[in-house]
Design brief:
mainly alpha; disordered N terminus; disordered C terminus
């Protein structure tokens, strides 16, 4: 149905690969920074680039967690509710999350052109708009994942079975 949002290994492989590549690049970049500093030849750009890479890993990792439905929560509290109340609370929570990321993404889209004339301090050929583009992009990815889950909540007629069955399966 929605293979790229189903939470299966294949569906999140690309996002997980991007995040893994970013993490490897971050690890290599920080290691090089330490080695060069130890050798007395500090790289002037390594800490700024490391900060950017860490932010990108965080934002894109959040999008992946939204797709996999693996953000931190209090499922025990919600699961104790009867199905109609659980469904209503979950729908309200999804709407709030979507609204927050719509606001965050909108501000990201608004601020990105403003930052087009600013650059990284240590690498002046990299515009801040490229660095900050992670905000609207990750917000859009999270909104898509949350809307798909919201649709599943609206369509679900009964609670998912115990054992980790998704709401999508409960609609069948």
């Amino acid at each position: 149905m929605r293979p790229w949002l189903s939470g299966s290994p294949r569906s999140t492989w690309t996002a997980a690969t991007v995040i893994a590549v970013l993490m490897v690049v971050l690890a290599v970049e920080v290691t090089l920074g330490v080695v060069f500093r130890f050798a007395g030849r500090s790289l002037i750009w390594y800490d700024e680039v490391a900060s950017v890479l860490l932010a990108w890993v965080t934002f894109y990792g959040s999008a992946l967690a939204s797709v996999r439905r693996s953000h931190i929560g209090c499922p025990e509290l919600v699961e104790r509710m009867p199905w109609p109340a659980r469904r209503a609370v979950s729908i309200a929570a999804q709407i709030l999350v979507i609204a927050f990321f719509a606001l965050l993404g909108g501000v990201g889209v608004w601020i990105t052109p403003i930052l087009a004339t600013d650059t990284l301090v240590s690498l002046p050929w990299i515009p801040m708009s490229v660095v900050q583009s992670v905000i609207p992009v990750s917000a859009a990815l999270i909104i898509v994942a949350e809307v798909m889950h919201l649709i599943d909540l609206f369509v679900a007629k009964r609670p998912p079975r115990a054992g980790g069955v998704s709401l999508a399966e409960a609609t069948q």
